[in-house]
Amino acid sequence: MKTPVSSMLLVLLAAFLGSFGAVFLKYGAIRVHRRLRTLIFNWRLAVGVGFYLLSSFFFVLGVRRGELTVLYPMVSLGYVWTLVWSRLFFNEPVTKNKSAGIALVLLGIILLSLGNR
Q1: Do residues 99 and 80 touch, judged by C-beta distance below 8 A?
Q2: 106 Cβ neighbours under 8 A, 6+ residues apart
Q3: How far is the C-alpha of 17 from the C-alpha of 25, rounded, in Å?
Q4: Which residue of 34, 63, 75, 82 lies most exposed, with the fewest beta carbons within 10 A?
Q5: How far apart are CA 77 and CA 38, in angstroms?
């Protein structure tokens, strides 16, 4: 089975949306206190969950017609996006170890994508 480009794009979109979900969950978590009310009425958490739901929706659409062994590694691009968003929105450091990890993730995705050739 050959994996269509449209399936790859849907899974890439899912990874991108999932990384935004993580950002909003982090923003929401910062504002959660000991009261249950701060958890229930936290719109940032709701938006984060919404991004995760959208991400899951596009992932399901993507894997319908493609090889899971090709598509699922692409989900790990969410780690790359999360590193970028964490730097931009939370001023988290990008260390040498994190950069090396991202390079390995990208190399792994490339190797797994080319596995059928």
Answers
A1: no
A2: 80
A3: 12
A4: 34
A5: 31
Helix axes 5-30, 43-63, angle to 10 degrees: 160
What does the block give as tokens for 77?
């691009």
- The tokens for 90 are 């939370």
CB atoms within 10 A of CB 51: 20
Question: Dmax of the chain from CA atoms?
Answer: 55
- Helices and strands counted in the chain (H then E): 6, 0
Token reading at 30: 């910062």
pTM, entire model = 0.85
55-75 pLDDT per residue, tens: 999 999 999 998 888 899 899
